[in-house]
Amino acid sequence: MDSILKPLYIAVTWVIVKIHDLLSPIFGSSSGVTWSLSIIGLVIIIRIILIPLFVKQIKSQRALTALQPHMKEIQKKYKDDRQKQSEEMMKLYKEHKTNPLASCFPILAQAPIFFALFTVLNGIGKNPPVSHGVFTQEDVVNAAQAKFFGAPISETFLSSDISTVKIVTIILIAFMSLTTFTTQRQLMTKGMPKMDSSNNMMLQQQKIMLYAFPVIFAITGVNFPIGVLIYWSTTNLWTWGQQFYVIKRNPTPGSPAYEELHKKRNKKNGIVEETNTDVQIEDEIKGQRQQPKNNKNKKKKKK
Fold this sequence. Notes:
Largest sheet: 2 strands, antiparallel
Mean pLDDT: 79
Oligomer: single chain
Structural class: mainly alpha
Radius of gyration: 29 Å
Strand order of the largest sheet: 1-2
Strand content: under 5%
Order of helices and strands: HHHHHHHEEHHHH
Number of strands: 2
Low-confidence stretches: 271-296, 298-303
Number of domains: 2
Number of helices: 11
């Protein structure tokens, strides 16, 4: 397994070391600020690389929203034949080049990196510290001394007796759960069109993610080193901000955010629209005034 993930260990540690080398003259090589910012820098680089996947996720979600009426028809038509229903659904996805699992792509893409970072930080926490990737023995010794708000970044809630580690872990897990919950809730309340909840696969999937992921973080987070929790908290915050921007600037047609954006645009264009309307009314009034004169002229000609 280590041989398969070795390229990932090298990639992850190389990025951390490069950022660490840039920040060391400012904060110090063993500083918790240096190592924490190096992990945060790793997140930023990864999330920039994953932007095309995020765009694909948004397109897929919008395509699925547009397909909801067709999906309901298939569910109604083949309600007694699950196999046929699945086959028709797959045909529909292929025709419109979409995937119901696209919302999970960014998470799945990060999973190997997440596991690599977990292994690297776990190695740092061992006695003596074990190096992975391009980390030198000096790097792992410095990283082992680094602390985040007084908690060593290589320690976990379960493996440490230090109260600071337990407090920082609980705060980070709470933050991870909260950002995950608010991100999903933001998508469901503002970013998705209002849909019938009965037999709605997409809505059911979003509801599962709304409640399942915070619970998963709460249960599994106690096994993660502080450094991994910093990574996941940062990536959650990035996801929330990225989604907030998309919902505000380019919302899904039919969603509450889309309606809000159009109301704002209509208000801005309202003055122009009113002016145009006033001009039309004035023209009509002028036309009505001129009509009787034309009629009188016609009568005179007849005489």
